[in-house]
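To fix ideas, we close by showing one paired sequence and structure record:
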Amino acid sequence: VQLVESGGGLVQPGGSLRLSCAASGFTFSSYGMRWYRQAPGKERELVAAIASAGSITNYADSVKGRFTISRDNAKNTVYLQMNSLKLEDTAVYYCNWGYNWGQGTQVTVSS
């Protein structure tokens, strides 16, 4: 199993980023996927989740209305569109399937 995140970077408050997670080694289209994040000095927290077919999604209260999780089962990829970014969104963002994690991608929101 391999999960490879990309798309992080430095962005100003109010800006947008789109994270991608390319998955391999399992039947991607059969499973739900999750995005987590971990800020310095804080525990890892669940940001968003999506069901296998993409029809059901869930979000942390802190990101509702700003972040959108989606997936392309033909490309074995899950996305996290992040809009209206805030300073407190700064964290390393991780893609997750079961006990498997990607290496993470850094998102820094700073003016």
